[in-house]
Amino acid sequence: MIKQLLIGLGFLCASTAYAQEAKPVYKNPAAPVESRVQDLLGRMTLEEKVGQLSTLLGWEMYDKQGKQVKESAAFRKAVDERYIGMLWATLRADPWTKKTLTTGLNPGQAAEATNALQKYVVEHTRLGIPLLLAEECAHGHMAIGTTVFPTSIGQGSTWNPALIQRMASIIATEARVQGAHIGYGPVLDLAREPRWSRVEETYGEDPVLNSRMGEAMVKGFQGDNLKSGVNVISTLKHFTAYGVPEGGHNGGSISTGLRELHQSYLPPFRAAVQAGALSVMTAYNSIDGVPCTANEMLLKDVLREAWGFKGFTVSDLGSISGLVGSHRVAATPADAAALALNAGLDADLSGYGYDKALLQAIEKGLVSTEQLDQAVSRVLRLKFEMGLFENPYVSAKKAAKVVKNPEHVKLARQVARESIVLLKNEQDLLPLSKTLRSVAVIGPNADNIYNQLGDYTAPQPENNIVTVLEGIRSKVSPQTKVTYVKGCAIRDTTKTDIAEAVKAAKNAEVAVVVLGGSSARDFKTEYISTGAATVSASEKGKPVSDMESGEGFDRATLNLMGKQLELLQAVVKTGTPVVVVLIKGRPLNLNWADAHVPAIVNAWYPGQEGGHAVADVLFGDYNPAGRLSISVPRHVGQLPVYYNAKGPSKHDYVEMDAKPLYPFGHGLSYSAFDYSNLKVSTSGSRDNIRVKVQFDLKNTGSRDGDEVVQLYLRDKVSSTVTPLKQLKHFKRVHLKAGEQKAIAFELNAEDLMLLDAKMQWVVEPGDFVVMVGASSEDIRLNSEFRVEDTIRLSMLKKE
After folding, report:
1. Which of 4-18, 459-473, 553-567 has the lowest mean pLDDT?
2. Is 769 exposed, middle or buried (0-12, 13-18, 19+ CB in 10 A)?
3. Residue span of the signal peptide, if any (predicted)?
4. For the domain that residue 447 is a member of, what is the CATH number?
């Protein structure tokens, strides 16, 4: 009997040991992802689940001592006590984070830091769940040593989605090799309010152009394989209608109807979701009284049910708490957490919107276990799909080698060149000769590296950035005398050198005056908890930064600030031919310059290679073809002034006409292009209708160049009011001097549809006008076609 008991005991011990050694399903890479998710979910405590939804500020989570980098005490505490699952901006460096070139991390150190963080969570937690690390990536990974591309408003002005997809793949590679998994971007807000501080982060005012750019960014970021080691998850921002705040106040309330929401503001997000985007960030604003962070219609009905979104949603920084403090739709943090989670918001960017507040909400019965598990499973699923349970680490040597390599810098220059818009060129003043005897380079943005880069940019060694002054010096002959005078600041009026600028202009054959704005954060500016700047109308006794754009810097006017206009007027008065180069993040008042300056070049924030790109255009080594992705108004009193407004047509004011100074799609070239032989034909029926638009395009100039052909559409009679014209297709076409190409576009039912009075997507029978041209106002060809039958579409249903 004793012998049998011993044998039985031995068998039991052996069975127990085997069970302990057997690999859990969630750790088995051969198991289906869904099985792994459910297995892990079943092993987690309530606190561990809630922790997976918290995204804490990452730059506090590492310690750097000399060349050694390791996890910080704050990180160990957050993991041990709060079971966190995500970090944001771990590698970010800027005045808000107080990370400098000295205290921040170079790419190799960044890889070591993220490895240390992953090692701790994998080896020192009960379940060993790796982290998801999110980084800002809209125009380059916002970290030290990375490639800085033009900001999004410049990217939009390229009208070249294929180029932007290449750029996005490089940004993704630079972020992923340093240990990041999520890239925040693209920003898909429509910029129809130029006073708003974040115009530079958008692609412009048009839903079709923004859609194509958003698709390109998503495809470039995510690629075809999230386990590739060079791709990141794309987080779309800001869901939705964030870019049209009343009065231009960042994060302020917006006024839009449901039909306009579906026809204008949602399409770019829908296009990006269909392109495969796996993360969406909510906006700070409310829509019709419901905050986006707790908007079930947006997060469930539209995003998941109608569009079939499979990824996870995340709040903007602190926006869950904003349900209590800003919107006042929740009385307590627990109520806010419940509102957000129940509405379909999965993750919390801040670390305090859910956390204890969500645990309290669950304890009170405000949130069900099923709802919590659904949110957690969406986060875990992506960790499995990225292969992080098998390989959470990266190579520091690879990061140091790959980030900002020569090919990446070369592409930054190309994106900058294609983003430059030639607004005006009277008497062909441009391009300039490289053998000029003397050139005066004047202005606050001629030789300022940070003013050239835009918001969401890390600190830079000076030799990383090529300014306009440096670009010009590298372009002209050694015999050309280049004289530089700053003249004035962007905003500060206490120090000017206009007299010296006038002297330089008088002694030069050409004066290049570089003006505009700045989004360059500095260590003197104060920031609120969301990272937006604190701005006061009264700055008496305080140092005045150049910043007049960038998050939080909303404008009441669009005039050139400080003494810039006075500087320009003084230089023009000398009689020396003047070229104005604009480096800025939003449309500015250019009325005087347009009336008095022969050549105007718009470079937006062109990134690290901006100086080379501007010089390439000024001296004719690159034929400009950028086109405005946002209208330039004559006066703030015209606003809104976007091109695709609904009827009736706007009439003139007493003081001025109603048209913008420069319209959407405008941009000049050193070549001329002829449009001819338009043919429009229809085929198919019902939802398979096809409208083929063909025409010939010829470069009649003496230089090779690009033309951006634009196809607009107008529904002549519709049951609901539609835009007077709406961009539907575009193409950037390269033609050699004298070359002609046949260009073709195809319209389908989605291009022709509208939301009728019953909020149903429908193509109505009737006549449509096709307009083909070089801008929204420069229409070269037009024709009509007719739709015979009603076509009903199911755009609001899952596809």
Report:
1. 4-18
2. middle
3. 1-19
4. 3.40.50.1700
For 437-509, strand residue ranges (E) read: 438-442, 481-485
Q: Where are the strands (E) in 319-436, listed by range?
A: 348-349, 421-425
**Vertex 223, ends 219 and 227: CA angle to 5°?**
150
Query: Is-cis flag, bond preceding 32, omega within 30?
Result: no
Among residues 697, 681, 698, 709, the alpha carbon closest in space to that of 771 is found at 709
pLDDT at position 522 is: 73
Q: How many domains does the chain have?
A: 4
Other beta carbons within 10 Å of 365: 8
Kindly state the average pLDDT of the residues 596-609.
Answer: 98
**Residue 791: phi, psi to the nearest 5?**
-120, 120
Token digits of residue 655: 């003081």
| Judgement on whether residues 86 and 167 belong to the same structural domain of the protein | no
Distance CA(534)–CA(73), nearest Å, equals 30
pLDDT tens figures, 8-42: 544 444 444 444 458 999 999 999 999 999 999 99
pTM over 0.70: yes
3-state secondary structure labels for all residues of 506-519: HCCCEEEEEEECCC
Q: Is residue 647, in this structure, part of any structural domain at all?
A: no
Residue with tokens 């009905």: 301
pLDDT > 70: percent of the chain: 94
- Residue in this structure with the two tokens 């800001």, named with its chain if needed: 238
Q: Which of 316, 348, 706, 751 is catalytic?
A: 316
CA–CA distance, 628 with 584 (Å, rounded to integer): 13
Q: Which tokens hold the place of 744?
A: 């073709």
What is the sign, positive or negative, of the torsion defined by CA atoms of 729, 200, 621, 460? Answer: negative
Same domain assignment for residues 482 and 593: yes
Same domain flag for 206 and 263: yes
Asked if 428 is an active-site residue, the reply is no
Q: Which amino acid is at 249?
A: H
Q: How does pLDDT run across 66-95, given as a tens digit for each residue?
A: 889 999 999 999 999 999 999 999 999 999
Q: Give the residue from 429, 460, 401 showing the smallest Cα distance to 610.
A: 460
- Tell whether the model's pLDDT for residue 149 goes beyond 80: yes
Residues 624 and 711 in one domain: no
621 and 500, same structural domain?
Answer: yes
Domain identity same for 149 and 188: yes
Q: Say how far apart CA 135 and CA 173 lie, in whole Å.
A: 12
Quick count: other Cβ atoms within 10 Å of Cβ 589?
A: 18
**C-alpha to C-alpha distance for 697 and 694, rounded to whole angstroms:** 10
DSSP state, 678? E
